[in-house]
Amino acid sequence: MSQDRAVAEHPQLQPDSPFTRWRLAIAIMVVLSMLALVSAIYFQAPQWVGAKKTLTDYDAFHIAGTLALEGRADDAYRMVTMMEAQEAATGTRSFMPWTYPPPFTLFVAGLAKLPIGIGFLLFMGLSFVLYVHVIRRIAGSYTPGVMIVMLPTLVLLMRTGQNGFLTASLIGLFLLGFLQRKPGAGLPLGLMVIKPHLAVGITLLTLLERRWQAVLIAAATVITLLLIPTLVLGPDVWQGFLDGVAESGEYLKQGLYPMFRMTSVYAFAHTLGAGAGPAMALQAVVALCAVGSLIWLWRQKAAPHRLAAAICCVSLFVSPYNYDYDLAILGLAVAFVLPDMLQRTSALEQTGLVALGWAATGYGLIRTITMDNKPVRLSDDRLGIDAWSLMAPLLLLLILLSIRVLARSPLAAARPSAAGELPRPA
User: Which sequence spans correspond to the domains of the chain?
Assistant: First the structure.
């Protein structure tokens, strides 16, 4: 869509607004595509660019999938055997516990049939296209603005090969279907079994609205996704999964995870010196407040697009185990409320909010680039607590400021005419 058409659709926008400039969006996508190609080389053959192999997130996908193909899916869930597989495959090892449910393990087993670089490009390419499609359906002409705000997360995902685009797309497809009162919204809800801790908000909304057809479709999807890996990988995979979850819980308490990349209040408190117990208690309070605020907004009959944005934000504060790559979900919230935000802010305020958004979403990426890589030993204490985790307070500040902005009336110069009201997905 051209800039002129975007302005014609929404006359409250200035003609030179970067938030509707599709040429800028295309430039971002071209750069991200080039980054994906470079990342694929680093995964497949880093020696081609004179680099040493460094294990990154998609390596864990490929190794876990390879173990599943070898009939050893349960070994992926045990850190000792996972590290042995890392060393056998790459000659190096890293702290990458595998805690994804068996349905996702089966999924990465399919990807592992391909060379790692090809699998990376296929997975990231398709999931990114799906993510942009979902954002486009929500934000319309404001899609370039969403890409600008979420740029650090887009770069991070194209470098690591994580599944943030996929999970955010599933939540976005659910919200689009839900707002249109389609029972089919239950399908992406059920598919979120691959990361159930991110589906608390959308599950709660489904139950509050009593969308029983969507619940039945979601339940059937979950049951199917649980049965298939049981049949293909064997029932032992579930014991491995349960062992892996318990083991990772202990690692989380010990601070072995790279907590500077976590977005939870738990990680923030733990890295500032709070013990695992107090940090988890604070996390529980924040999670309850987040869920309570969602219920309050629903009871207050908030505008559907604002309620959808709130659901996306709540999803980021329920679990103590959230990473910066999960922040692709925040892009959905931005897509839902960006038009409202632009109507209520000056250019200076918009610049400040974008800068704060970049700091909140890019902190983990910058810390990864600037800090020294340390060898991982499971006997180490506080390995992940050496660097502060600051994304949670930055994200909370961004959300609180956005709430204040949304409570304003539109600026006089930006007030749309009746013919220029913004389209909504419902």
Answer: 3-420
Separation CA 182–CA 80 (nearest Å) = 45
Show pLDDT as tens, one digit a residue, over the chain (426 residues): 333 444 444 444 544 688 999 999 999 999 999 999 999 999 999 988 888 888 899 999 999 999 999 999 999 999 999 999 999 888 888 888 999 999 999 999 999 999 999 999 999 999 999 999 999 999 999 999 999 999 999 999 999 999 999 999 999 999 999 999 999 999 999 999 999 999 999 999 999 999 999 999 999 999 999 999 999 999 999 999 999 999 998 888 888 888 899 999 999 999 998 888 999 999 999 999 999 999 999 999 999 999 999 999 999 999 999 999 999 999 999 999 999 999 999 999 999 999 999 999 999 888 887 765 554 455 555 555 567 899 999 999 999 999 999 999 998 654 443 333 333 444
166: nearest Cα among 215, 125, 226: 125
Q: pTM for the complete prediction?
A: 0.90
E strand intervals along 183-271: none
Coil/strand/helix, residue 409: coil
User: Are the beta carbons of 215 and 207 closer than 8 angstroms?
Assistant: yes
